[in-house]
Amino acid sequence: MSTPQLITVLGATGSVGLSTLDVIARHPARYQVFALTGYTRLAELLALCVRHTPQFAVVPTTAAARQLQDDLRVAGLDTRVLVGEGGLCEVSAHPLVDTVLAAIVGAAGLRPTLAAVEAGKKVLLANKEALVMSGALFMQAVRRSGTVLLPLDSEHNAIFQCLPRDYESGLEKVGVRRILLTASGGPFRQTPLAELEHVSPDQACAHPNWSMGRKISVDSASMMNKGLELIEACWLFDTTPARIEVVIHPQSVIHSMVDYVDGSVLAQLGNPDMRTPIAHALAWPERIDSGVAPLDLFSIARLDFEAPDEVRFPCLRLARQAAEAGDSAPAVLNAANEVAVAAFLDKRIRYPEIASMIDEVLNLEPVVAVSELETVFEIDARARTLAEQWLDRNGR
Ligand code: NAD
Ligand code: MG
User: Which reaction is recorded as catalysed by this protein (predicted)?
Assistant: First the structure.
């Protein structure tokens, strides 16, 4: 048997990180954890280190590193603790690493994920915000290094599974008419519009089908998540927003579809459990057990579909506009959304104000061409400042 692949899990303490470690632990002969990173839940990171014995762990501050290093020593482990963004990039690009799982949430994941791409690692991408912010530069880096980039986002993983191997020659060439990007519609799909003023963060995070981190849960409630995924799909599959149709499918059993010119529509189905796309991407092109229960179609009984309502979900419209504008617009959208979601989770703004804030920031920030990563971070910082100014004027 060949030696196990060494894996860095960026964002190991999060929802996707934990699902990944669950799949990895089922296949010790195939996969070994090389590095684990965490940000706030450091006691959990320690427990994960004890369980998976990585060579490296990464935490945000020197104080946290000292504490974790002491705790690891007491636990009898020789895991080395690194600090901050430098540490994240180091464990992403380390010569011993085969695969990097990018599961940090938000803009904080961009540099470490790019470091993995530039070092030619196999990259399994959950951190959609990184791609939304810097799509053109990110995909250039993928092509330059020749790395294998596989989507973990369940929809994109489904689309990837429904495309032929040579899809990179162009979707039109392989006969694709449209991508049908499915969405559950989240917890507020049927909430009376007048009640949306009063919904709480906990209600927004109570997703009907998926268990996820709080930021992506709010994004799913507002359907900004689908908007970010639309942009993500444009980059991953080299297509335009016009070729992507969003379809609300409340059961979350079909994870997305590809519509071909001959009228065939291919779908990928499964239980809503991230371990399926994670196992698919880890083992691709092989298949491994993920621990996910087989799909029971009889208990699901029916599959429903609806068109999304852009009055109910203005964030989806804003994201589509940003996708069509291109250049810096998606980075502005993403930054304003990150500030807005954090403010909503802190109860500084009401749920409908998420969209109002993003709309205003998009209107204030001109669309400019982006040819360097530093420009992306400048745009990101400017959009965050504009969003904070909006909060100072309108927030609590
Ligand atoms: P989460 O909040 O559960 O976990 C986030 C992880 O990122 C944690 O390990 C945290 O320690 C780390 N992190 C947070 N801020 C950081 C910072 N500033 N620097 C370094 N590390 C930081 O989130 P999640 O639900 O696991 O989602 C992670 C990513 O995967 C997001 O981009 C999300 O959109 C994407 N995604 C998640 C799911 C899902 O089912 N949860 C599905 C598809 C895509
Ligand atoms: Mg998704």
Answer: 2-C-methyl-D-erythritol 4-phosphate + NADP(+) = 1-deoxy-D-xylulose 5-phosphate + NADPH + H(+)
Which H or E element spans position 231?
helix 224-236
Question: Of ligand 1's atoms, which has the minimum distance to the CA of residue 128?
Answer: 32
Residue nearest (by alpha carbon) to ligand 1 atom 31: 105
Please state the domain extents for the chain.
Answer: 5-151, 152-218+234-307
Pocket test of ligand 1: the residue of 105, 124, 211 to mutate, having most ligand atoms within 8 Å of its CB, is 105
Give the residue, out of 19, 131, 215, 216, with the most ligand 1 atoms within 8 A of its beta carbon, to mutate for a pocket test: 216
Element (DSSP H or E) covering residue 97: none
Relative to the alpha carbon of 210, which ligand is closest?
Answer: 1
pLDDT number for residue 1: 57
Residue type (1 letter), 160: F
Question: If you take atom 39 of ligand 1, which residue's CA is the nearest one?
Answer: 212
Q: Each residue of 126-155: pLDDT tens digit?
A: 999 999 999 999 999 999 999 999 999 999
Cβ–Cβ under 8 Å, residues 179 and 267: no
What does the alpha-carbon distance between residue 29 and residue 173 come to, in Å, rounded to a whole number? 39
Domain 5-151, what architecture? 3-Layer(aba) Sandwich (3.40)
Q: Map residue 258 onto helix, strand or coil.
A: strand
Q: What is the pLDDT of residues 316-334, one digit of tens each?
A: 999 999 999 999 999 999 9
Using one digit for the tens of pLDDT, what is the confidence trace for 207-245?
988 889 999 999 999 999 999 999 999 999 999 999 999
Q: Which atom of ligand 1 is least distant from the CA of 154? A: 43
Q: Is the CB of 103 under 6 A from ligand 1?
A: yes
Amino acid at 111: R
Residue 81 CA to ligand 2 center (angstroms) comes to 31
Which atom from ligand 1 is nearest to the alpha carbon of 214? Answer: 2
Distance 12 CA to ligand 1 centre (A): 9
121-160 b/e (C-beta count within 10 Å ≥ 16 → b): bbbbbbbbbbbbbbbebbbebbeebebebbbbbbbbbbbb
Pocket flag, ligand 1, residue 212 (CB < 6 Å): yes
User: Whose Cα sits closest to atom 41 in ligand 1?
Assistant: 212
Ligand 1 atom 7, closest CA: 104
**Gap between the Cα atoms of 132 and 150, Å rounded:** 15
Task: Give the tens place of pLDDT for each residue, 253-271.
Answer: 999 999 999 999 999 999 9
